[in-house]
Amino acid sequence: MALVIGRMKDADWPAVRSIYEEGIATGNASIETELPGWKEWHEGHLRCCRLVARLEGRVVGWAALSPVLSRSAYAGVAGVSIYVSAFVRGRGIGKALLRALVEQSEGAGIWTLQARIFPENTTSVRLHRSCEFRIVGTRERLGRLNGAWRDVVLMERRSKVVGV
Length: 164
Fold this sequence. Notes:
The chain has helices at about 15-25, 40-45, 95-105, 120-130, and strands spanning about 5, 50-55, 60-65, 75-85, 110-115, 135-145, 150-160. By secondary structure, the protein is an alpha+beta fold. A 7-stranded mixed beta sheet has the order 1-2-3-4-5-7-6. It is globular. The protein starts with a strand and ends in a 6-residue tail after the last strand.
């Protein structure tokens, strides 16, 4: 089975949404509890950096960037979202997606990538570390999920080719 990383198309939304739903259901992938519709998701993410991973033509993972701040001085800073379908986790798909996202972000002039991860999601923390993200700090009790306060680890990756 060959893994193919490619540009996300509008038609991929149902699969992307389903994988996102799986992540939300774990309780350790997102503070969100409700899935957005296509319009909301589309408007909240950069158009330049949206990827899907396909195995035998089936979307099994996705990665996208969202703006962190609206001021033009921060146009080169973006937030990372990355999700892999439960039935293929542990096969290196997340790493392939994140590496491709880093490459594509640099081609788009982005100099800093940020990831906000629950500390309990040790797999995601390890994945980001393996792609040269570093822990900047932990934001304590940043949000509530199902009535419980959750901490968030802030990780970032500075490009070695953009903004140097």
